[in-house]
Write a structure and sequence with these properties.
Layout: H1 2-24, H2 43-54, H3 60-88, E1 90-93, E2 96-99, H4 103-109, H5 113-148, H6 154-162, H7 165-194, H8 206-214, H9 228-240, E3 249-253, E4 262-267, E5 271-276, H10 282-299, H11 307-310, H12 317-330, H13 333-339, H14 344-377, H15 383-396, H16 405-408, H17 414-436, H18 444-455, H19 462-470, H20 477-482, H21 485-498
């Protein structure tokens, strides 16, 4: 019986991953294209697995993966309805139609504050219209957790899944927001004062942040020989020099640039797919390096690890930390000068602006994780919309609309994993630079250490990994180091000259 239930979970995971891969590749989700045929997992099977876990006969990760698969099945009909409506939704700005799915990428290119504000109004109206469909997916999730799985609320489910560290993680997020607040807002004010079209405090929207953090205004510095498919191939070649074996890596280059790349493991460590568009600028390079960082982590797992340590990872924070570490490499001054051929001054500007981005996003995701933590207690109560908009604006300095609430929520408190990974990646970078100096990724000793880190897979949490392999907990100090006040002001001035 135990072996049958293990096989059930393994087959379900493989089928779901194959289905997701086909969907990302635009090949549909028909079962005739999926190698592994499955039947839906039932509530009774989930309860049976839970009983085996409680008796110590099965690893706890099997139960929570069974729960996740069960919830996904419940949500799929509502999600398909939402996807259908979103596929036809468009914003209109200055006579231009902008697909709902392309709003962020369009905004990254838009240097007109007036048009960004127009887009904000359009997006708010679209979200208001689509909100009932998005809310339906969340309410289905909450009902599955409470009515079928027997938890008091969604947070209760997540607390059992993540363990006692969850509350401490949220307090750490609150502490981070408090400790970095003054430096962050001084930085943001300086940034907005220096750009050609200054944006005054109180009139800064989320769409202004998307434009500024996208750094498309610095793409004039991007080398031509790193553009297009050639750029993707160069990035992959660089990663092949970092690890001994990338045989399981499959690269898919789409026809359009500007989309979000993704990493999809099908079988860890044997089959990992990265889907990306041709490179056109810095944010494309960052995104590709981020996903290749995921791939490096998955492909580096030992094949001898038990299934639950390879495939059944409950928290993605460790994988995300690897991904953010290599996102940092993409705009590292040594990489930019020695590998991509940029001048020192341009490389310094790009590198410090990336640190600014990391701080801004770390604050966004720490605030989001607090919002989700509070609202998941009551399974997404309506006042959560107002609380979301208030908290995000208070901690980021950018205006958020309540109507975007259900579209910005992330399941499983993934926002918390992002926040923890942002902080950990900077601590990892500092550790590697301390042992190897600038350009740590060019040193064989650092590459060997990366291999050892990935080899262990998900046998430990991010916190356990940091203590065991770095001898430290992830801390906020690297952010303080990266945003040194006088130095930063000088860099922002230089950056503004390139806009």
């Amino acid at each position: 019986m135990i072996d049958d239930l293990k096989s059930l979970i393994r087959d379900q995971i493989l089928a779901v991953r194959q289905q997701d891969l086909l969907a990302y590749l635009g090949m549909g989700q028909g079962h005739d294209q999926i190698q592994t045929k499955i039947s839906p997992i039932t509530k009774e099977q989930v309860k049976e697995i839970e009983g085996l876990v409680e008796r110590g006969l099965l690893h706890r990760n099997y139960y929570f993966y069974a729960c996740d698969l069960f919830i996904r099945q419940k949500v799929e009909p509502a999600q398909e309805m939402l996807d259908q409506w979103m596929s036809g939704a468009k914003a209109q700005v200055g006579g231009e139609d902008i697909k709902f799915s392309n709003i962020i990428s369009w905004c990254q290119y838009q240097d007109s504050k007036e048009k960004r504000d127009h887009l904000e109004r359009e997006a708010r109206a679209l979200c208001r219209f689509l909100s009932p469909f998005s809310e339906a997916t969340w309410q289905t999730t909450f009902r599955a957790v409470t009515e079928d799985l027997g938890y008091s609320d969604y947070l209760g489910f997540l607390r059992k899944k993540r363990g006692s560290v969850l509350d401490a993680d949220i307090e750490n997020a609150r502490s981070f927001l408090e400790q970095t607040r003054d430096g962050y807002f001084t930085l943001i004010d300086t940034w907005f004062e220096r750009i050609p079209e200054p944006v005054i405090p109180g009139d800064r929207s989320r769409f202004d942040a998307i434009y500024l953090l996208g750094m498309r205004y610095l793409d004039s510095l991007y080398p031509d020989d790193w553009k297009g498919e050639e750029g993707v191939n160069k990035a992959v070649n660089f990663f092949q020099g970092l690890v001994r074996n990338l045989d399981g890596l499959n690269i898919h280059i789409t026809s359009s640039s500007g989309g979000n790349p993704c990493c999809l493991p099908v079988s860890i460590p044997g089959e990992v797919h990265v889907i990306a568009g041709p490179l056109g600028g810095w944010i494309d390079l960052e995104g590709l390096f981020h996903e290749l960082g995921h791939a490096l982590f998955f492909l580096g797992h030992s094949e001898e690890l038990p299934f639950e340590a390879r495939e059944l990872f409950l928290e993605p924070a460790l994988s995300e930390a690897f991904a953010f570490l290599f996102q940092l490499v993409s705009l590292d001054t040594t990489f930019l000068t020695r590998v991509m051929g940029l001048g020192e001054r341009d490389a310094e500007i790009l590198s410090i602006m990336q640190k600014v981005k990391f701080l801004t996003l770390a604050r966004r995701y720490s605030a989001k994780s607090i919002t989700e933590y509070e609202n998941f207690k009551g399974c997404g109560r309506q006042e959560g919309k107002r609380r979301y908009a208030q908290l995000l604006e208070r901690h980021t300095g950018f205006r958020y609309q309540p109507e975007t609430y259900y579209f910005d929520l992330m399941p499983d408190l993934y926002s918390l994993d992002y926040f923890k990974a942002f902080v950990a990646s900077l601590s990892m970078e500092r550790h590697l630079e301390g042992d190897n100096g600038p350009g740590w990724f060019l040193h064989e000793s650092a590459r060997e250490l990366l291999g050892k880190w990935a080899f262990c897979g998900n046998t430990m949490s991010l916190e356990q990994f940091m203590i065991r392999h770095l001898g430290m907990e992830a801390c906020h100090e690297p952010f303080d180091f990266a945003i040194n006040g006088p130095l930063l002001d000088g860099y922002v001035k230089k950056m503004a000259q390139n806009v």
